[in-house]
Design goal:
With about 425 residues, the chain is of the alpha+beta class. The chain has seven helices and 14 strands. Helix content is about 50%, strand content about 20%.
């Protein structure tokens, strides 16, 4: 992947990560607000319930204790401890005001005067007195009106603790989301960007390869139309046009094959294929090109009855590519040897030639599309790319080395299926 594509992936991934982090932050804020609201409502409801119990306790105590002076609440245990039965009407965080019929106000805490407009309160409500926030509720009694209050400090402290906890978690959560989104985004975007770059490079290389034969054809046509020429010149020009047309047709066929392979949803039907028979048929097709260059083309069957389960047309294409390369790059008078064998429970197809060979430092790139290790005309660098696609799709494995003739050895092996071939 180039530096530009890498920076593009980084920018896109960062943008996606920021969007994801912003969305999570928004959702987190909504959930946080909902938690705080729910906590406030829940704790307020509990507080109101305690106020109602305190008022009911005081009202019942007044009816049962007629000897108690008017306006004096039930005696409290020390330090706000619970009354017998677990009831604690008043304590450290709770107080009361009793407004007698004659207007006299009695309170446990003289420092918290009840506003006059709250003397007749009944429903729970929240008020501020001095620096204290209280929740109050009232009940009418025969001798006056009782108002009970409880401090909101515990509720506010609990709410503050929850808010601080949410705020403390938020940075770590959002950082984790950002880094996670960035990592996932790069992992997802990198192969997509690589595929896009390969597609762009493929299109550019294909255009370049097609431009050359088209330029030759156009140039010969222009020269033929520019002036009258003799028959020999026209024949030579048509031969050049024919050669470039054949080259262009082959290139288009290879491009179409790769395009169909890349777009293929599922591979063709696999069938049992006799590899030895298929190699014999391919060798017959290349007998004439080999003879034209005085090449010795030999087929060796080191194992008989070698059968593979694969699309026959794919294997035929693979053998054709290997033989074509071997015949093309072997020198005049050289040799090409095709062998079918078995080794280590694998079926092996080997093609040796006497050409220049493939240096070790270039073997990792021989299957790249439009890659060529020679300046000799006639190829576009797609043959081995097609062969590699077939080998990978049929669970094969490449072995590239040096042939006994000093040229290239292209070997493919597949896992052996069934009972295996017999030895010849």
């Amino acid at each position: 992947m180039t530096r530009n594509s890498g920076s593009s992936v980084a920018r896109q991934s960062t943008r996606v990560a920021l969007w994801a982090t912003g969305l999570v932050a928004l959702l987190y804020a909504v959930v946080g607000v909902a938690i705080v609201v729910w906590l406030t409502i829940s704790l307020t409801a509990q507080l109101d319930e305690r106020l109602q119990r305190a008022m009911a306790f005081e009202s019942a105590a007044r009816r049962l204790d007629d000897a108690r002076p008017t306006g004096v609440p039930l005696a409290l245990p020390p330090d706000g401890e619970a009354m017998p039965g677990g009831i604690q009407p008043f304590g450290r965080d709770r107080t009361f005001w009793f407004i007698a019929s004659d207007g006299t106000v009695t309170s446990l805490r003289e420092d918290l005067p009840l506003p006059a407009e709250r003397y007749a309160v009944t429903s729970p409500t929240t008020i501020d007195i001095e620096t204290s926030q209280l929740r109050i509720a009232g009940i009418a009694l025969p001798e006056g009106h009782l108002v009970v209050a409880e401090s909101m400090d515990p509720l506010n402290d609990a709410r503050t603790s929850v808010i601080l906890g949410l705020l403390a978690i938020a940075p770590a959560l959002l950082l984790a989301v950002f880094l996670g989104s960035l990592t996932v985004g790069r992992r997802v975007a990198t192969p997509i960007e690589r595929a896009r770059q390969r597609q762009l490079a493929f299109t550019a290389d294909a255009s370049h390869e097609l431009r050359t034969p088209l330029s030759v054809i156009e140039a010969n046509a222009s020269l033929a139309l520019a002036a009258e020429r003799d028959a020999a010149w026209y024949r030579h020009a048509f031969e050049r046009v024919q050669g470039e047309s054949v080259r262009m047709r082959r290139l288009v066929e290879e491009l179409l094959w790769l395009a169909r392979f890349d777009a293929m949803q599922r591979p063709p039907q696999h069938e049992p294929v006799d590899l030895g028979q298929l190699v014999d048929q391919a060798a017959d097709r290349f007998a004439a090109p080999a003879e034209a260059r005085s090449l010795s083309l030999q087929v060796r069957h080191e194992a008989s009855g070698v059968t593979l389960s694969a699309p026959p047309e794919w294997l035929d294409q693979l053998v054709g590519v290997l033989l074509d390369n071997a015949c093309r790059y072997s020198p005049v008078g050289g040799s090409v040897v095709v062998a079918v064998s078995t080794a280590d429970r694998r079926v092996v197809l080997t093609v040796d030639d006497s050409g220049p060979g493939i240096p070790e430092d270039r073997r990792d790139h021989v299957f790249d599309r439009f890659h060529r290790d020679t300046d000799e005309p006639g190829g576009a660098g797609l043959g081995l790319a097609i062969a590699d696609a077939i080998v990978r799709a049929t669970s094969g494995r490449w072995h590239i080395g040096t042939s006994p003739q000093g040229g290239a050895r292209m070997s493919v092996s597949w896992p052996m299926t069934g009972g295996g071939p017999g030895r010849s």
